[in-house]
Structure formats: structure tokens, C-alpha cells
DNA sequence: CTGAAAGCGCTAACAA
DNA sequence: TTGTTAGCGCTTTCAG
């Protein structure tokens, strides 16, 4: 027995609109709107009548209607390759922390499974006030297009068209690699990860090579092209084992990859770090729990997300915001538990 | 020098609307709408003119406007406690696979950090055509309210008001625990996890107790109340160690918890499974990579997500859809690598 | 084949 | 203090 004015079929659930409330309370829609906005201009008595109608019918203003009227959705979009793994979870949490403060909802999109990533992102752009885009998910050309109508900020990547927040992965990787060479005397080092996979990995590989070059060392072998997850690490371990003659150290593109190696190599008869040193990147919580504990580079991932969120939501942002990293020496590089300082001074541009 | 009719301040980026295109092409908005819908009724010549205007101005129909008009958002919402961890990532991927097929966007909400979860979910409900809700994230009363205006389906949980898709965690946990008791002769078993934490954990604990009861065994100690992540597992390990006198077996609420134990206990001088057996739950990829490899229960998590998505998007769904689980025997329970069948017949209601 | 206009739920300027 | 109304971007009957 609904009083709705329009087409309705049968049982589809329907929500009361502002007009329903207005009618129920015997006022105009404007008054209802004022009540939902706590506008002080509305009389106590009227206000109460409206509020009762609202409660009785269970009304909530449609955010769709509001968005259309406001020309603002109160939503922040986040574009990532995928949503697996602790790195992206941390990034999202960082963004979420500022979104919550500002009463903004979050909408994350994983492009990985979407056949047409660009189209999905455009869609998302329409439904949000700003976009955080992970480096490497979209071609520069598409970023340009998006930048025309949306406020976008890149995280862990760079672009000419949008501000970005990132860390100096290249310097950090170099520092890490230097440690392996200078402190532990390793000479045969190999990189694990797909250098072309993401801007982050590209930079880490570059830093790895910088360190080698500074010491006139050649790579012990081409990079082992693997993804950034634990399973890939396990696969890489098997390949390393089958190749025979392990390098002195394996520098992994991220922690998960390193953990995969760490967990698999011992079963194959290789001791870490005695036979081969392993390092990670990111300093996820797994790094500290692994055994041996993982030497890695700490990144303020949540802060990356928070800064990016603030920027995407309208705060002024330098065209390039670089956050500090910190080398974290544990045992997987060969340092003994005792002589391992828990942290060393950081590296960043 | 925009031709927009309305208030515009300075440099805020603006998108062309259907009216801009209509004006540019010298037609009515209705015609433009038809072109964007490939309506065959529009003449080739006109159609081309409109299309050119669209391309020239870079127009894309506003999904907000469309949603308001259609009364449908083409978006699926997913409500989870948090977005960390492989379990939820897999769940989302399952849902995403059907969302992609149907040209629907996905919007996931992690309630964990949101101070007012219920309000956030209501908001989300307005912006979506259907909602997948993880068991335990919302009180029954709130589910009732949501069900009035949204199509909701529960995953890994149950409710009187909405259909649900889940596994029989209780039966699976019992089968797993029986294995520990009957095959390995363990007598002193303890549960790790917070039974009140989520419906899933509640059921697993119940199954654990069922098995003990069937053998007239008492718990070796109260459940160790820890979260469901790796770090919690490491903490639990420390507590177990400090309590002295380890139980024969530790039955963990999920794989991540188990992995945390697995990685930490050896460093504390306890060998697995010789000194203490460990089991997980879920069969995430880490389970196979851990050493010793983790005995656990396989759950079709992606399928849970896929079924739930289909239901939330309008497919008919039984009020209770139960998916099969499968006991996965590896080495952390004490089975030798050789005599461990990689899978055993499943348990499910 | 095309256009005018009403309507989706809401806000805000303007009137009263 | 309250109401009227135009408008946000789009779809869709109904005329023409």
C-alpha cells in the first residue's frame, strides 16, 4: 500500500524518498532537507514532526541524489593492480585513516582482473571526488585523460600530469645491496623480481645495479622474473636450486617473494644465510616473524596512502612528495642476531 | 570559456554533459542518449554527427545521472571486517569474477577501522544494487534493516533475514581434530583463536570440542584468544612457550595464525610436529609453502564469493548454500611427507 | 527518425 | 520559519 507516485512492479524493496517524508510530516521537501542537515532555521515543533516521520519510515537521504546535487560524491577512489598482499592492504588503511576523518567513503578498484582497466577507472572516476592511482597500473596517456576531469595522485610511481607520493626505492635498494657487498663481502648477487613489472620494482632493480656498478661487479645472472607473491618466491627457489651453483645473495623485489625463498630453500638443502643471503623490501610484518628474520627496507606504506588520500581529496600536494625509507638489518643477510642494530639511518631523496 | 549555463568558479575541472553534446551536434539530448545506447532508430548521418561531437568533447555519460534514472547503480558492495589477508582477497576475487561477467563494478568496505560500521554500510547500500556481507560484521538487527531496502547475502555467516553461502566449518573442524586424535593419538589439544571473534571461528571451535567430546577428552587449556593474522600467531607462540608444558597439538582458527606459530615456535626450541602438532584452516597458499607444510582444511573461498555475488546481483539463491570443504593432510600434524595423501574426502552439510 | 518534457532524489536560491 | 522551484545528468514515454 505504498504511496509512491510511480511505476513499481511487485515486491522489489523500495526506499522512502524525501517527498514521502514531506508528505508524511505535512511539510515541504525543503524543510525535510533542512532537518537532515541540522539547519537551525527550522522550528523545534516542525523539526520534531519531521524527525518522527523520518524515523517512522526509516528514511536516509539518497547519497546518489545528493551527489548529483552537490556535484560531489564524498568518495575517494583507489586504483591498484590487485588487492592481495599486505602492501596494498597497508596502503588502503593509510588512505582510509584520512578518509574516515573527513567523512568520505572509499572505493578500491583492482585492475588486475578487469579486461579493460582504463574503462573501469574512468567509471570509477565519475563516482569519486579524487583518485589514488598506483604506479604502473595505467599508461601515461590515460592518466592525462583522467587528469582533465579528476583530481588524481599517483602513489609509488610518477607522471608528468599528476602529483605523486613515493619513496626513493632506487637509493634504498642501493644502500641495501651495498650492505651485502661491503659488510658481508658478497660478490655474486642476483636480483629476484620482474624489473618491468612496476615502477617500484624497476627502481629497486636500478638501485641494485648501481651498487654493483660502484664496486665493479657484474650480476651473478639475469634477474629471475617472478611475481611479487609468496608463491612466486617458492617457485623462484626451485629454479635457483635447479640452476645449481647458488649466488652469494639473492636480492628480492619485495618481502613476500623473499619469504617464499626463505621458506623453500632450506627444504632444498640450502641454508640461509650461510649458503645464500636473502633480502626483502617493504618490511611487512612477516619480515620480522620469518626465520631467519628478514633483512629488508622499511617503507612507510600507510603514510604513502595517507598523503595520497589527502592530496586526492583536495589538499595541496607538491608535484613530488618523497617519504623516507629505512634499512632494516636482521639476520637473513648474514648479520648475527646480536650485532644487528634494529635500524640504520634512512635513505631518501 | 566554457558554455556551461551554471555556477562555476575558476579552474575546477568539468566534464561535458549530455546537453553540451546535444548543443554541439545540433540535436536534442534524447538523440544523444540514443546514440550512447546504440539505439537503431537514429539515422546514420545524425548518429555520426553526434558521435563526432562526443569524441571531440570527450564525453562519457555520467554514471551518477544514469544510476538515478535507472534506479540501478550497476555496482556490487562487499562488506568485510578488514581487507588484509589472503582470505578476503580470495573472496573478493571470486565476487569480482562474476561482477566482471555482468559488467558490474565492485565496492568493498572494511568496517574494521570505521567507527560507525552500520552507518557506513547503509551508505554503501544506497550506492549499490546488492550487498555481500561477511558473517559477524553486523548485528542481526542491522541486517534486518538493510534487508528491507537492499538485496543482501551473507557469506561465512548466517541470518534469519538473508540468504547465506557458507561451509560447514564445524564438521570440518571436527574431522580435522579427529585426525589428530585418532591417527596421531594426541590427547592434550588446545584451540588457538577467539571463539567469539567471528561466526567462522565460533563454528571451528565448536567442531574442535565435538571431536574432543566424542573421545571423552577435555581441552588442554582454554582457547588462546588471538586474532587471525600471522603476527598474532607469533604472539601466541610466545605465550605457549612461557606457559611451559606444551600441549600435544594446537588447533588454529586459520592458516595465518598457524603460520605465525610455525615460524616462531622452532626458534623457541619446540620442534614441529615432533614436540607439538599444528593445524590451520582455509588452505591459503602459504599453507603449502610453510615448513613443515601445514595440515589444514581447504575451503573454496573464491567460490563462496562468486556464489554470494550472483545472489546479491539478483540470481535466485537458496536460503542456505553450503559449499564443500576438504581436509588437507600435510606434515604439520605429524604425518610423514610420504604417507600423507594430498587430499582426503571432504566434509560438509 | 527526432524532439519536448517529465521524472529519478536531492539541494539551494529566492519568495513569502 | 517555511514553501516553491529550478537544476544536477540522464532516460524514456509520448507526440510529431
UniProtKB/TrEMBL annotation, chains A, B:
PANTHER family cross-referenced by the UniProt entry: HTH-TYPE TRANSCRIPTIONAL REPRESSOR PURR-RELATED, LACI-RELATED TRANSCRIPTIONAL REPRESSOR
UniProt protein name: LacI family transcriptional regulator
InterPro entries in UniProt: HTH_LacI (IPR000843), LacI/GalR-like_sensor (IPR046335), Lambda_DNA-bd_dom_sf (IPR010982), Peripla_BP_I (IPR028082)
Domain of life: Bacteria
Signal sequence extent: none
Keywords assigned by UniProt, alphabetized: DNA-binding, Repressor, Transcription, Transcription regulation
PROSITE patterns reported for this sequence: HTH_LACI_2
Single annotated GO MF: transcription cis-regulatory region binding
HTH lacI-type domain span: 16-70
Organism: Microbacterium marinum
Keyword Mitochondrion: no
